[in-house]
Amino acid sequence: MAQATKGKLNYRCPSCFMRDIDIDMFYDSHTEEYYCLRCSFRGKRGEVLKLNQQARYRYKALKLRVADFGEDNEPVSFKPHEGGAQ
Ligand SMILES: [Zn+2]
């Protein structure tokens, strides 16, 4: 752990990211695991990628805008974001 480095490609910590903290992890070549300095998360590359992919559910509507919130128990309707006017 003392000689751990950042990997060629840095991955963000999925555990911290779920708490709105964006922090890179370090790579331990002995165990072939990524680990976080801030929290206790550690995991193989595949696990890190899977958990980071799962965290994307929060941003499903990132490129959409709410067109109508609707009444109670009605679904919210979206429209695509058109970008800013020049
Ligand atoms: Zn973390």
Describe this structure in words.
The strands form two sheets. A three-stranded antiparallel beta sheet has the order 1-2-3. The protein has a two-stranded antiparallel ribbon with strand order 4-5. The protein has one domain (14-80). The chain is elongated, with a radius of gyration of 18 Å. With 86 residues, it is α+β, with helices and mostly antiparallel strands. The protein has helices spanning 14-17, 45-54, and strands spanning 26-28, 33-35, 42-43, 64-68, 77-80. The site of zinc ion has 8 residues, from helix 1. Residues 13, 15-16, 23, 36, 38-39, 41 line the site of zinc ion (ZN).
For the biggest sheet, the summary is: 3 strands, antiparallel
Q: So what's the overall shape?
A: elongated
Number of helices: 2
Instruction: Walk across the major sheet and give the strand order.
Output: 1-2-3
**Series of H and E elements:** HEEEHEE
Q: Strand fraction band?
A: 15-25%
Rg of Cα set: 18 Å
Number of strands: 5
Head-to-tail CA distance between termini = 51 Å
Oligomer, anyone? single chain
Mean pLDDT comes to: 87
Binned, the helix content reads: 10-25%
Uncertain residue ranges: none
